[in-house]
UniProtKB/TrEMBL annotation:
Name assigned to this protein: 6-carboxy-5,6,7,8-tetrahydropterin synthase
Reaction catalyzed: 7,8-dihydroneopterin 3'-triphosphate + H2O = 6-carboxy-5,6,7,8-tetrahydropterin + triphosphate + acetaldehyde + 2 H(+)
Domain of life according to the entry: Bacteria
Molecular-function GO term, any one: 6-carboxytetrahydropterin synthase activity
Pathway involvement of the protein, from the record: Purine metabolism; 7-cyano-7-deazaguanine biosynthesis
InterPro entries, A to Z: 6-PTP_synth/QueD, 6-PTP_synth/QueD_sf
EC number of the protein: 4.1.2.50
SUPFAM superfamilies from the UniProt entry: Tetrahydrobiopterin biosynthesis enzymes-like
Family from the record: Belongs to the PTPS family. QueD subfamily.
Length: 141
């Protein structure tokens, strides 16, 4: 089995609903997303001969998906009143509405699902919320 990994980062703001502590307040992170892909065999011809996937292509896809979150306010759907959302958008803020609580665990799973949907053989995604705190999502074999 072969494994490749690449990573990308994004800056954003969020708050955690139902959190009893400082994280219930609006704050920011530079999230670091590390993506692993696995494959039993290597390419046989062209650019990808003896590769799982060209690193250039791998990082391009990962960066593209991660960039969809960059410099945005990540908001769990239903966690802000519609009026609040409208006011923020009127002020020019970009809100990224998400159907899940914005934990590192859920973000890791979300990136795994999105990248699997783009055809990458993803096996694992690590999502670092801080340099020392990381949640990992492992894709079922
Ligand atoms: N399992 C998880 N726990 C927490 C998550 C999470 O996504 N998964 N997220 C948070 C908050 O987003 C919070 O911002 C993180 O706070 P904290 O761990 O306290 O990190 P700090 O860097 O601010 O810690 P200090 O040591 O106080 O500087 C909370 N938990
Ligand atoms: Zn946080």
């Amino acid at each position: 089995m072969y494994q490749l990994k690449t990573e990308a980062s994004f800056d954003g703001a969020h708050f955690l609903t139902d959190y009893n502590g400082k994280c219930e307040n609006l704050h920011g992170h530079r999230w670091r997303v590390v993506v692993y892909i696995r494959q039993a065999s290597l390419g046989t011809d062209g650019t990808e001969r003896d590769m799982v996937l060209d690193f250039g292509e791998f990082k391009r896809i990962v960066r593209e998906e991660v960039a969809r979150f960059d410099h945005m306010f990540l908001v769990e759907e239903g966690s802000l009143a519609p009026d609040t959302v409208a006011c923020l958008e009127r002020e020019g803020f970009t809100l990224r509405m998400l159907p899940f609580r914005t934990t590192a665990e859920n973000l890791a799973r979300n990136f795994a699902e999105v990248l699997l949907g783009r055809g990458l053989p993803v096996s694992r995604v690590d999502c670092y919320e801080t340099p020392l705190n990381c949640a990992t999502y492992l894709v079922d074999e």
